[in-house]
Write a structure and sequence with these properties.
This protein is α/β, with parallel strands linked by helices and about 500 residues long. The protein is built from 14 helices and 19 strands. Strand 4, helix 5 and strand 5 form a beta-alpha-beta unit.
Length: about 500
């Protein structure tokens, strides 16, 4: 018997410190897709929705697409935007008629105005619509804030195992297999979640290194045991200043609540014992640029982690660019600075024309003031390219009109829309091969590593000013539970 599943995606990672209010139009910038258009767009892509599509093709299941909407990380999601998105999702599920389950791709760290637990609200409203007997399952980003409500409203939650996130496709396949087994009555899942008082910044929480790597390996070992369906390690997103933000562990077993509880308690204890490994030190912009200029070989990647647009920062921070220009750096490229005004000036000047204007530092006052750039316009572009790297493989990006400025030995890519330049194609599409530059500046915290680590001679993490800084002492937290490490270095906790 062919199964019928409704599928959909609502995704936003909310940095509550950001002044950028996330409106419905911001979701449209990444593509607001409904119905069959959703299936066409995500077919043959290594994404969560692409995983659902492939699973259905291989198993003969029927998919009823509702909507896909995602926005670049920024500030609170407007209440009316959240309501409009959830309404579209619910309307699509209701129009599907009789279904065997709902498969969603959610982020897990979305915060809407008046609704701190936005995903809990989404799952709860889907649950009320379909009733208690229709399975509701979702994939979650590794940076999800996993609340009790999310766990109770869903039949299964499957978190990414990687940061950089390169396994959304695989987690979707896992979620689809799970919902099929559940619909067929082959499993009886039970869940247990624990949130130790740990809320690290995103940089020291990457999965290929340090404490999270060890915790992931232990989670995989548990998953190999009989009766264990899934064990997810969530790094959390500390810049969502809500009560439950921080590290979380979620175990799902087949009708064995005691086993699930023992698993998450063990992982929480291990994480607490390694808590001091989550504290990281980085170089200031001037120091980092000097180091890169003196390096014997390139490319030296300078990751401007505090200005990571993928963490809700503006992306138009200027301190690394300022250091490059002040120190006379050569063979350097900055990928990218979102600045519609600078783009307009470049388009007016035309290719080969003179450029003189202020670049960056215009979205807020937290990432450095604008920098005066004098140079030439090398290239103009519509800002469209295909991601060929391991993240979002096959998807089309549109970053708005784009210009390449050249000032002495520094190339600056300016574009209209905020985005995280994790794929080298963002540079290659405008004639720049980052593998052949001495210094490459990226506005990203960790995701860039999936594509750039293989080509980089060295990676230097830079701690300039910004709303994604791993230096948590720079933030005024008001809602996260306290005490919590490393915001409170003297936090004490006794694991079970």
């Amino acid at each position: 018997m062919s199964r019928r599943f409704a599928i959909g995606q609502i995704s936003h990672e909310t940095n509550t410190f950001s002044p950028i209010r996330t409106e419905l139009r911001h979701f449209g910038e990444r593509g607001f897709l409904q119905g069959e258009e959703l299936l066409r767009h995500f077919a043959q892509t290594k994404t969560g929705l692409g995983g659902y599509i492939d699973f259905a093709r291989e198993t003969g299941a029927e998919l009823i697409p509702t909507l896909s909407a995602s926005a670049v990380p920024s500030g609170y999601v407007a209440a009316e935007a959240h309501q409009a998105l959830v309404t579209k999702l619910l309307d699509g599920i209701q129009a599907a008629g009789k279904i065997d389950g709902v498969l969603l791709c959610l982020h897990g760290a979305m915060v809407a105005e008046g609704i701190p637990d936005a995903e809990g609200d989404i799952l709860g409203r889907v649950r009320r619509l379909v009733g208690p007997r229709v399975p509701v399952v979702a994939t979650l980003d590794y940076h999800a804030t996993v609340t009790d409500r999310m766990v109770s409203e869903a039949d299964g939650l499957f978190g990414y195992n990687t940061y950089p996130h390169v396994d959304g496709y695989e987690r979707a396949l896992e979620a689809a297999a799970f919902i099929t087994n559940l619909a067929d009555g082959r499993i009886k899942p039970v869940h247990e979640v624990i949130r130790p008082p740990l809320a690290p910044g995103v940089v020291p929480a990457r999965t290929g290194w340090g404490p999270i790597k060890k915790l992931m390996e232990q989670a995989f070992a548990y998953e190999a045991q009989a009766g264990v369906i899934n064990v997810s390690v969530y790094g959390g997103f500390v810049y969502s200043d809500i009560h439950d933000a921080g590290l979380a562990f979620l175990a799902t077993t087949d009708d064995d609540p005691a086993l699930a509880k023992s698993i998450v308690e063990d992982l929480a204890r291990r994480a607490w014992e390694m808590r001091h490994e989550f504290v990281t030190e980085m170089q200031e912009p001037v120091q980092a640029v000097r180091h890169a200029m003196q390096a014997a070989a390139g490319p030296v990647v300078l990751a401007d982690v505090a200005d990571n647009t993928g963490g809700g920062a503006s992306g138009d921070g200027t301190e690394v660019l300022r250091a490059l220009l002040d120190q006379g750096a050569k063979d350097a490229v900055v990928i990218t600075i979102p600045d519609p005004e600078a783009v307009e000036l470049a388009f007016r000047a035309g290719v080969g024309g003179e450029f003189r204007g202020l670049v960056g530092g215009k979205i807020d006052d937290a990432h450095g003031p604008p920098v005066e750039v004098v140079g030439k316009v090398r290239l103009l572009s519509d800002g469209r390219f295909v991601n060929y790297g391991p993240m979002g493989t096959g998807t089309v990006a549109n970053i708005g009109r784009t210009a390449v400025l050249v000032s002495d030995g520094v190339e600056i890519i300016v574009n209209e829309r905020r985005f995280q330049p994790v794929d080298p194609e963002a540079a290659r599409a405008v004639g720049i091969d980052p593998a052949k530059r001495k210094i490459v500046v990226l506005k990203s915290a960790v995701h860039y590593r999936a594509s750039y680590e293989p080509m980089a001679a060295e990676i230097v993490e830079v701690d300039g000013p910004g709303l994604a800084s791993p230096n948590l002492s720079r933030f005024r937290f008001q809602n996260i539970r306290r005490p919590i490490f490393p915001i409170d270095l003297d936090c004490d906790w006794r694991p079970a």
